[in-house]
Amino acid sequence: MNNLTELEVENLRHIIGSHGMIANKLDSYAQNCTDPQLKSMLQKDGQDARQAEQKLLGFFG
Fold it and tell me: Strand locations in the chain, DSSP E?
């Protein structure tokens, strides 16, 4: 992380937060969904958003 500027770190935090928020929304939509195919798609997209969030958090580690 030493190579990142302050602006880049701030942007990265914003992006990470956005992925978390998107994952939470997709999880909520999936819980309320009655169509099995759509529910599965929403769950997978939520998992993908969480994985992206975790990868981005790796820049802080």
Answer: none
Q: Letter for the amino acid at 31?
A: Q
Q: Each residue of 30-51: pLDDT tens digit?
A: 999 999 999 999 999 999 999 9
CA distance 18 to 13: 9
Tens-place pLDDT, residues 7-33: 998 999 999 999 999 999 999 999 999
Distance CA 47, CA 50 (A): 5
Domain regions of the chain by residue span: 6-60
Rg (CA), the chain: 14
Q: Distances in Å between the alpha carbon of 14 and those of 28, 32, 41?
A: 21, 27, 25
